[in-house]
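Recall that a protein's primary structure is simply its ordered list of amino acids. Everything else, from secondary elements to tertiary packing, is in principle encoded there. The following example makes that idea concrete.
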Amino acid sequence: MMTGMNMENLKNNNKIAILSYLNKNGESSRKKIAEGLKLTTATLTILTNELIEEGVITELGALTEGKVGRKQILIDIDKNSKFAIGIEISRNNIYYNLINLKADIIESKVWKYENKLQENQLKEILDDIYKSTKTRRDMILGVGISIYGGLDEEDNWKIGVSNIKKIIEKKLKFPTYIQNNIRALALTEQYLNRDEKDFWLVKYGPGVGAAIIMNGKLVEGNKRLAGDIGHIPFEKNGEVCHVCGQMGCLESKVNFEKILKDFDQSLLLNNPILPNEKDYEYILRLSEIQNNKGLEKILEKLGKAITIGATILDSNKIILAGDILKDEKVFNILEKHILENSIFLRKENITFMEDYVDKRKKAPGILVLKNFYNC
């Protein structure tokens, strides 16, 4: 009986290996996959035929190989055979994105909420998501959640609806995976760009968050805070941080609320926020009027903290992310302050995350895909 169970586990593991290979390398022949996974052609054929019957992979057509013209049939993942639900919870919005096995976004929705997210609001939104996915329920692999703020060892949300994972799992009735939004973004960067195996991700706006990937794996630490500089003690005096509760942490010194409070009141009165203008767009507009003087002071503090963090972590690649850093002037100012404080880092060590907005949208769903592909 145990032998039978072990054989079944081996078979399932080999199926996952096949899917992971195709996910990483794209369409391929059975021969190439067998060589890559060190499986016999006979075993590979049996397993791929089963996956075709299950509807997870599909045959694409013949590829001529070699001088004798031998044909190999190409196979690939049937990207719309399975889906993952992604739910991102930011400070004022809840985003829903459904992605397929190739991480393409199939449908999206967004809901706004004021102040702190309430459990009854969450349940109403989950009812809406349930209705949206009703026709695809047998094709959905699970639910991924990314949240701002920290998680404890039991996956409870420290600053929001504590047992959010259990609520979502009970409401949507799918396996559920939860992660801090910055860590989810770092995992997404590594998942979509497999060449990136060692990097430190720092996201700025409206607060500061960071995560570190080493040897292709997320490093979390005892309190799930490894690599995060947002709430390190930075100065003794200052305002109390609404996330960590301490006075003078880095985030309390550089977050968007702090920037707006530091602007001259007459400037705010004469330049009110425009309809549909986002916080970072408003800050950029006001900063332009002041020739970026106020913003430069903030970025100087942030740059110094990033330099210290990179030195401690011994990170040779820093990936910066955040809507405000898409502005070339802002990115260049921050880059300057990072480099002027370090004798180790060079310009080529610092990059901006490509397709940041798209990756942020996909990040919760990719938590599910990573589990499915066992990567």
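Residues 2-25 form the longest helix (24 residues). The chain has a mean pLDDT of 91.
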